[in-house]
Amino acid sequence: MRWSSEAEQAVKRVPFFIRPKVKKAVERLAASKGAGTVTLSHVQECKQRYLGGQHDGVQGLQVETCFGPSGCSNRAVSFPGFADRVERLLEEKGISRFIREGVSGPLKPHHEFRVSISDCPNGCSRPQIADIGLLGAAMPDTAEASACNGCGSCVEVCREAAVELRHPGLCPLVLSDRCLGCGQCAVICPTGAIAQGAEGYRVLVGGKLGRHPRLGTELGLFTPEQALEIVSRAAELYMDRAKPGQRLGALVDEIGLGRVKAALLE
Ligand code: SF4
Ligand code: SF4
Ligand code: SF4
């Protein structure tokens, strides 16, 4: 995201060791307002909203988003206010307090419970390594496949080679095991032979870096409301079962994916 020179100057006054975190928070605030450029007023508002009295800015919970809301053309989904709902939900559940109480000494960024939301499968906010990752997806629907005129645009646009045109009688076929739900084939199709189908978030749990890195385990595609319910249950499971300082990914490995799925999805 671009920064105005005044905003750049203002953020340079933030201590270097928390500057990256503050910059992220400011960019997220600007993105949530649909801005393409960070201005001084975003920096000032962020300071008031997030940092008032908290000099290190580390609260125990971090909900990050990609820059989709500021107008990224790759965006597959748009659910305004979703990140704020996730943050509110987790705060109400007491996750920040739980994290703070489990850490002896000062709270550091790597202690925080992280939720990362990206609006398309490119995953610019790195949801794969967050405790809970949400990847926006818009799946193609080929119910009107007979409308195909054989232009080939869908095949060209798909970076996963997930679309094939079958002959005779041209007919698009989407290979579901390859499709990531970027939504681009439905956007480009001129006849509606491929239209946008189910949309929502692919939910990943248990991603982390550190000494034992782990990519989040994907649970499937869910509507925003379903995803919120999964986030809520994951927080409950974590606060119920995790040892002090244990990350969700380590807990998932300890109790087994089957039990985790039962707790989050059934
Ligand atoms: S994740 Fe997708 S929508 Fe979000 S900023 Fe990256 S490319 Fe754009
Ligand atoms: S949504 Fe369409 S373009 Fe995107 S990966 Fe799936 S088949 Fe390919
Ligand atoms: S973009 Fe649409 S009309 Fe063109 S080949 Fe693909 S399905 Fe057919």
List keywords for this structure.
19% strand; Helicase, Ruva Protein, domain 3; 266 residues; binds iron/sulfur cluster; 10 helices; alpha/beta; globular; Alpha-Beta Plaits
Report on this structure:
The chain has 266 residues and is an alpha/beta fold. Among the domains are: 57 residues, Proto-chlorophyllide reductase 57 kD subunit B (Helicase, Ruva Protein, domain 3, Orthogonal Bundle); 59 residues, Alpha-Beta Plaits (2-Layer Sandwich). The chain contains ten helices and nine strands. The strands form three sheets. The protein has a five-stranded mixed β-sheet with strand order 3-4-5-8-9. It has a two-stranded parallel sheet with strand order 1-2. Helix 2 crosses helix 3, helix 4 runs parallel beside helix 8 and helix 8 packs across helix 10. The two termini are 40 Å apart. One iron/sulfur cluster binds next to loops.
| Percent of residues in helices | 25-40%
Ions, cofactors and other bound molecules? iron/sulfur cluster
CATH topology heading of the domain at 139-197: Alpha-Beta Plaits
What is the beta-strand fraction?
A: 15-25%
Summary, kept brief:
With 266 residues, the chain is of the alpha/beta class. The protein has helices spanning 5-12, 19-32, 40-51, 82-93, 95-101, 153-157, 184-188, 224-241, 248-255, 257-265, and strands at residues 2-3, 37-38, 61-65, 113-118, 132-141, 163-166, 171-174, 195-205, 217-222. Among the domains are: 1-57, Helicase, Ruva Protein, domain 3; 139-197, Alpha-Beta Plaits (2-Layer Sandwich), CATH 3.30.70.
